[in-house]
Design brief:
The chain is mainly α. It has helices at about 5-20, 25-55, 60-70. The mean pLDDT is about 85. The chain is built from 3 helices and no strands. The protein starts with a helix and ends in a 19-residue tail after the last helix.
Length: about 90
């Protein structure tokens, strides 16, 4: 411990690992943020792919009609729609 290099080297390492602006802790936070952003990117890329497939399917008039009936409860003239909801509460 009396060596001059050891006396300067240990505080330097401690300073660089914990107190510096580019410390290990800061880099760890940045890496976590990068991983979160990359997972968000992949989520939105998958959603974009599914939306493009849906747009391609809606080019067909029958698919467009089916989508409008299911999603927005649209109906034809002189047609009645009955919505049946099941009771999900267990007694």
């Amino acid at each position: 411990m009396t060596n001059i290099f050891v006396i300067f080297f240990i505080p330097f390492i401690v300073w660089m690992l914990f107190f510096d602006d580019n410390s290990y802790l800061v880099h760890r936070e940045f890496n976590k943020e990068i991983e979160d952003l990359e997972s968000t990117i992949t989520f939105y890329e998958e959603k974009l792919f599914l939306d493009k497939e849906m747009i391609k399917n809606l080019q067909d008039s029958l698919e467009l009609e089916r989508f409008a009936r299911e999603k927005y409860l649209m109906k034809r003239e002189n047609e009645d729609i009955y919505i049946i909801e099941f009771d999900t509460i267990k007694k």
